[in-house]
Amino acid sequence: xxxxxxxxxxxxxxxxxxxxxxxxVKDCTHLVTDRICRTVKFLSGLAKGLQIVxxxxxxxxxxxxxxxxxxxYLVSDPAMEKQYKFNLATSLSRxxxxxxxxxxxxxxxxxxxxxxxxxxxxxxxxGAKYLKTMPNKYQENTVVISCSNDHMxxxxxxxxxxxxxxxxxxxxxxxxxxxxxxxxxxxxxxxMSETSGKNKTRKK
Length: 204
Prior knowledge:
The chain is an alpha/beta fold and 204 residues long. Helices cover 32% and strands 12% of the residues.
């Protein structure tokens, strides 16, 4: 599978070597990209612990006549790793050990970006259970992902003491394979709290 990158010959190399082009992250073993990009495919692939490789993996595999070990060709993007304060190899190793949101129940409100449909797709690979409706009773490991536009509809969760977090709780959390409740807390005690993470620029 490819994200943020594709040339005319890449798919042919895959099929010539006996591979199959995956149509979903669920069926994918390798994700090919020329950079770290916060697409649904990339975040889902990282959460699943896929081998995220550079195009050089395909070129070298073509020359060898067989698929080579992808661990030797992990995509390199020092600028993005520095910006989001993570190491891709370390994060992939953690993701392969345990899905980051295992045991969590998560609801996403309507105005969140990426939108709830995209967030649900990403969350499939984090181990979380997706909640279709707003939770209104406290239960451990329940989280609402929201934004300032949806403050009012979060009131049932806020009153129940359920943490309401920015989308970065999930997005940056997947990149780092760490859950940061302090930096990305959005609403608390029936009032909006701006956190240091709120104004971060999100790149795709």
